[in-house]
């Protein structure tokens, strides 16, 4: 049986081997970067990253390894993020401020080494990408409890920016304060939705008569709580850490299964991964005629294309009332059966992106 010292000697040796291997990997990645520079190819290739993680998961299973898929993904997503940064450092704009759930989502995909740009609105993220001031944008698109983020859909409808990836993140709220005890708290800051999601917690802890002050973001709430010892904030774990406000309670949301879907925006088309989703916008030409949507959807059904979401939005044009539809379906725009359906509706459909299906989709 190995002693603790023996184990640490073995760990040190393995860590050194891993570092040598990682450096060797980075030399190959550097060459990939040169090849892509010559060809103008996209640096971020989510379908290739997915294929690597799937292959390693199968290898780990086969060999009885202790690492499961999420552990492998957590380690390798960071390696990919470092690799991409080495190939070409690219700026990632997100709906800020720092410490929002969107910031957390961006970091989970682009890692600790990337350069981030925190922006004040979803519109600013789109504008920054359109002006090519950043390569990627990260914005929320829907929450499992609150539904769709209308602003993101409306901007996708108007913009040339495309969806290149999606990710689902569980949303947990923390109650953070510099106060020593609950009775010292005179005011609580959060986003209006933050209060809405934690009603039971507030009443169970006798906090209903404390002043609840809605602010623009949960990160802003953390900043305000960091400056006032008789205040608390309902915010994300990362905001509390970032602004050094001690956490009094974690996971205080009424329902623990809430998650938000985020999209990563950019300006390129992914290759087919075999497990993709596509988002489109549909403006039916004869939208006033009953059954036009049914006919449209029947074409999808005929090709066995399954929808994962359909959302109607009022069109804000000046041609009176009208609707357009935002649709997500399984498959990639370059697959033949999908091309066949979309070709029939060429004039009515705007393609918003095809991307690897998010891991935590329920
Ligand atoms: O294979 C590529 O295209 C690479 O750029 C290499 C690599 C990797 O680290 O394995 C890095 C970034 C891409 O998103 C996918 C994979």
TrEMBL record:
The keyword Amino-acid biosynthesis applies. It catalyses: prephenate + H(+) = 3-phenylpyruvate + CO2 + H2O; chorismate = prephenate. One of its GO terms (cellular component) is cytoplasm. GO terms for biological process: chorismate metabolic process; L-phenylalanine biosynthetic process. Pathway: Amino-acid biosynthesis; L-phenylalanine biosynthesis; phenylpyruvate from prephenate: step 1/1; Metabolic intermediate biosynthesis; prephenate biosynthesis; prephenate from chorismate: step 1/1. One of its GO terms (molecular function) is prephenate dehydratase activity. Signal peptide: none annotated. Keywords: Amino-acid biosynthesis, Aromatic amino acid biosynthesis, Cytoplasm, Isomerase, Lyase, Multifunctional enzyme, Phenylalanine biosynthesis. InterPro entries: ACT-like_dom_sf (IPR045865), Chor_mutase/pphenate_deHydtase (IPR008242), Chorismate_II_sf (IPR036263), CM_dom_sf (IPR036979), CM_II_prokaryot (IPR002701), G/b/e-P-prot_chorismate_mutase (IPR010957), Preph_deHydtase (IPR001086), Preph_deHydtase_CS (IPR018528). Residues 91-267 form the Prephenate dehydratase domain. Residues 1-91 form the Chorismate mutase domain. Its EC number is 4.2.1.51, 5.4.99.5. The keyword Isomerase applies. Pfam families: CM_2, PDT. The record marks 260 as: Essential for prephenate dehydratase activity. It is found in: Cytoplasm. It comes from the Bacteria. PANTHER family: PREPHENATE DEHYDRATASE P PROTEIN, PREPHENATE DEHYDRATASE-RELATED. Catalyzes the Claisen rearrangement of chorismate to prephenate and the decarboxylation/dehydration of prephenate to phenylpyruvate. This is Bifunctional chorismate mutase/prephenate dehydratase. It comes from Sulfurimonas hongkongensis.
């Amino acid at each position: 049986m190995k002693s603790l010292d023996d184990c640490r000697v073995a760990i040190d040796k393995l860590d050194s081997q891993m570092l040598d291997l990682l450096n060797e990997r980075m030399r190959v990645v550097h060459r990939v970067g040169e090849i892509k520079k010559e060809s103008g190819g996209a640096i971020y290739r989510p379908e290739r990253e997915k294929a690597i993680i799937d292959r390693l998961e199968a290898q780990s299973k086969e060999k009885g390894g202790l690492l499961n898929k999420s552990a492998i993904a957590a380690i390798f997503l960071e390696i990919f993020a470092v690799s991409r940064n080495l190939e070409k450092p690219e700026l990632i704009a997100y709906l800020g401020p720092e410490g929002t759930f969107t910031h957390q989502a961006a970091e989970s995909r682009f890692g600790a080494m990337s350069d981030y740009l925190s922006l004040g609105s979803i519109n600013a993220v789109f504008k920054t990408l359109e002006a090519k001031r950043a390569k990627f944008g990260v914005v929320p698109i829907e929450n499992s409890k609150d539904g769709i983020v209308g602003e993101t859909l409306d901007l996708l409808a108007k913009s040339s920016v495309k969806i290149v990836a999606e990710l689902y993140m569980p949303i947990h709220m923390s109650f953070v304060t510099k106060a020593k005890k609950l009775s010292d708290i005179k005011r609580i800051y959060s986003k209006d939705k933050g209060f809405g999601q934690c009603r039971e917690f507030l009443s169970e802890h006798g906090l209903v008569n404390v002043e609840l002050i809605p602010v623009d973001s949960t990160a802003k709430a953390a900043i305000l709580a960091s400056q006032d010892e008789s205040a608390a904030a309902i915010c994300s774990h990362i905001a509390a850490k970032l602004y050094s406000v001690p956490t009094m309670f974690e996971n205080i949301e009424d329902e623990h299964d809430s998650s938000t879907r985020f999209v990563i925006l950019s300006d390129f088309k992914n290759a087919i991964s075999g497990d993709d989703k596509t988002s489109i916008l549909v403006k039916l030409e004869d939208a006033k005629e009953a059954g036009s949507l049914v006919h449209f959807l029947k074409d999808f059904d005929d090709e066995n294309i399954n929808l994962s979401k359909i959302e109607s939005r009022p069109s804000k044009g000046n041609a009176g009332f009208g609707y357009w539809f935002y649709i997500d379906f399984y498959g990639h725009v370059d697959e033949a059966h999908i091309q066949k359906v979309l070709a029939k509706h060429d004039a009515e459909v705007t393609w918003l992106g095809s991307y690897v299906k998010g891991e935590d989709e329920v």
